[in-house]
Write a structure and sequence with these properties.
With about 550 residues, the chain is of the alpha/beta class. It has 20 helices and 20 strands. The strands form four sheets. Strands 3-2-4-5-7-6 form a six-stranded parallel beta sheet, with helices on both faces.
């Protein structure tokens, strides 16, 4: 093991070359095949069912094994790694409780559409009554994940290649199930590499495009909305919006795609600022590129009411799924934008003046800062997060857990590119943040990772993984929005006229816990303590945790 706590070639144990004529044990062959198919990092928790595969992956195949403290976090790490590296993430766990501990993380990856492979050991197929015997296929399938059974020793490498291929093509996790009786079988090694089909470019329906151009040409106040399906087309869409005279906005998934654009309204939807909502309300046409137009984006359809809607996406089944549209354009966002501009130019259609109604000034999507915590104790969350946003280098990766604080964190923390923002709330579960941030840091090395999480989420699923981050020497800044409560539940009980006492907790000192795990740590209990925390972040030499003390009764109401 290297000093940073992850396992890699060149460290103890020594690497033993696999180039030999004798048959390989199956665990050796799987390890070699993983590396041959481009997998150089595996996250996991070792147990009886997978320890020899993990050991061979390091010892004999030269891979890197990153040990998590909990199986769910191993999958969250593979998830974060996959998103930030644009590769298939791979995790491994043992049978029985090792697999059951991953269920929430698998559902999260399914709902997020993230391709990863979970190599899971299984008990011996002949064992009926062992304590860890469960029906693993039946456990996995309700999560929505795929399942690949290793059928026999001589099909194992083919089954592995199939699992990796399925994860990529299906954009979801696939569990590869390896029975214990096969692990030490001798097999002849044959390289297997799954071939990925080439997806043809969508053919644009010119009739629908003609309808879209007609709607746009007659619009007086058009608005351009970009979703995650439009990533990579930011420049083309900015040019398109300027040509048609439209302000621009994004869904949360395309956060900061138009950062710096003079017509930028910021996030469109439940997180939109009051200034953005005023402009959105005046629009008479929305041209949406790569956005699902789900209820969060449209505020249950209210933001599209009274507007003509043009919906462009590469996937026909995604168009009009949540909202009624007036024109359905299948195609690449950048290509469709360029084509529409050409048609408008040929028809000599003038631009709208609506873009000029966007308030001047950078970052106009932000609300005014309150002078304190609105009469409560602790720190004003917007003040703290805005200050931290300004002190962490802009090339950061931004990750969150789930919680009430997200309504402030998502608008206030920015990224240079939307691809550097990791969304971890597809299942609405707390406790996903630290594991996901570790995977993101490994997947995008050389860049600081800023994680904003809640106190409940940190205690539920992330606290033990702080030690993992320290072992790995990651440049991780953890900001804990600590209101001493389950905030979302707290506010519901208060609004119902009930005592919120059951949602409140007297946590131990997060700064002390983090320090014990090797972090630099500081508590911010008042506005006067914020500058010292910012300096700690600036001068950090390793991972750092900032515990921001908040008042659950005085969190900003930013919902619209």
């Amino acid at each position: 093991m290297s000093e940073d706590g992850d396992h890699r070639s060149g460290s103890d144990p020594p690497r033993i070359p696999l180039l030999r004529s004798a048959p390989l044990r199956l665990h050796e062959a799987i390890a070699k095949s993983l590396v041959a198919q481009g997998v150089d990092t595996v996250f996991g928790v070792m147990g009886d069912g997978n320890l020899f595969v993990a050991d061979s992956f390091v010892r004999e195949a030269g891979g890197r094994f990153i040990a998590a403290s909990h199986e769910a976090n191993a999958v969250h790490m593979a998830h974060g790694y996959a998103v930030l590296s644009s590769r298939v993430g791979v995790a491994t766990v043992t049978h029985g409780p090792g697999l059951t501990n991953t269920v929430t993380a698998l559902v999260q990856a399914v709902k997020a559409g993230v391709g990863l492979v979970l190599l899971c050991g299984d008990t011996d197929s002949r064992d009926r009554y062992g304590p860890q015997v469960i029906a693993q296929r039946e456990l996995v399938l309700p999560t929505g994940a795929g399942f690949e059974q290793v059928r026999a020793a001589d099909t194992a490498l083919e089954d592995l290649a199939t699992a990796l291929r399925r994860a990529q093509v299906e954009s979801r996790p696939v569990v590869l199930n390896l029975p214990a009786e096969l692990v030490h079988a001798d097999i002849g090694y044959t390289a297997h590499r799954g071939q990925l089909p080439t997806r043809p470019a969508p053919v644009v329906d010119e009739d629908q495009l003609d309808v879209a151009v007609g709607i746009l040409a007659s619009a007086q106040r058009p608005l351009v909305l970009a979703g995650r399906g439009a990533l990579g087309a930011g420049e083309q869409l900015s040019a398109f919006a300027e040509r048609v005279g439209a302000p621009v906005a994004t869904t949360l998934g395309a956060k900061d795609l138009f950062h710096g654009d003079a017509g930028n309204l910021g996030i469109f939807g439940t997180l939109a600022s009051a200034a953005a909502l005023e402009v959105i309300g005046q629009a008479d046409c929305v041209f949406a590129f790569g956005a699902s137009l789900n209820p969060y984006t449209t505020v249950s359809g209210s933001l599209l009411a009274g507007k003509r809607v043009i919906h462009c996406d590469t996937e026909p089944e995604g168009i009009g799924r949540f909202s009624t549209v007036d024109a359905a354009v299948v195609g690449d966002a950048g290509e469709v934008a360029r084509t529409v501009v050409t048609w408008l130019d040929k028809a000599d259609v003038p631009p709208s003046s609506f873009r000029r109604r966007v308030p001047a000034g950078e970052l106009r999507d932000r609300e005014e800062i309150a002078p304190g915590a609105a009469g409560g104790t602790g720190v004003d969350i917007r003040t703290a997060l805005r200050a931290i946003d300004g002190v962490v280098s802009s090339d950061r990766t931004f990750v969150t857990d789930a919680g009430r604080y997200l309504a402030v964190a998502w608008p206030e923390i920015h990224v240079e590119r939307p691809e550097h923002f990791l969304f971890t709330v597809s299942f609405g579960a707390i406790g996903t943040g630290v594991g996901s941030a570790i995977g993101a840091a490994v997947g995008r090395p050389g860049h600081p990772v800023l994680l904003v999480c809640g106190d409940g989420g940190l205690m539920l699923g992330g606290l033990a993984e702080l030690a993992t981050a320290r072992r790995l020497g990651l440049d991780l800044i953890v900001v804990v929005c600590n209101d001493g409560a389950y905030g979302a539940e707290h506010v519901q009980l208060v609004n119902a006229g009930r005592s919120p006492g059951l949602t409140e907790f007297a946590w131990p000192s997060f700064a002390a816990l983090a320090t014990a795990m090797g972090f630099e740590a500081v508590t911010v209990g008042s506005a006067g303590e914020l500058p010292a925390a910012l300096e700690r972040i600036r001068t950090r030499s390793g991972p750092v945790l900032v515990d921001v003390v908040l008042d659950p009764a005085h969190m900003p109401d930013v919902a619209h």
